[in-house]
Amino acid sequence: xxxxxxxxxxxxCSFGAAPGALAVLPLNAVLTGAADATIMDSKPLVNIASFxxxxxxxxxxVAAATAAAMGVLVPMPCVPVTGAPxxxxxxxxxxxxxxxxxxxSKLMCSFGGVIEITxxxxxxxxxx
Length: 128
Prior knowledge:
The chain is mostly beta strands and about 130 residues long. The chain has one domain (about 10-120). The protein contains one helix and eight strands. The strands form three sheets. Strands 2-1-8-7 form a four-stranded antiparallel sheet, with no helix packed on it. The protein is elongated and about 55 Å long. It starts with 9 loop residues before the first strand and ends in a 9-residue tail after the last strand.
């Protein structure tokens, strides 16, 4: 199944300049102390923060700035455009009738980036 993800998880985009954090509404605090994430926690700027700067030529702002600079790549501010939920989710773990988000889940940005989870927002402490 993979490790479940909760609020505060760290994300990275293949075209982003910096990591971002996953925001999850506090409705889903059922499995951990933090709100647990589902595949539907994919809304730009609500759940998915900006990755500061975008370098994808699929982003119209980057394409226009790069064309104006005679083909020299010009990064522009990142505003994620995500139209679909995370995939895949945990098929056997449901939170509010939605599949739970796992470390294996990915999210596609309409500008061509792949958003991945680099830290789940929760850790396991092993005591001696």
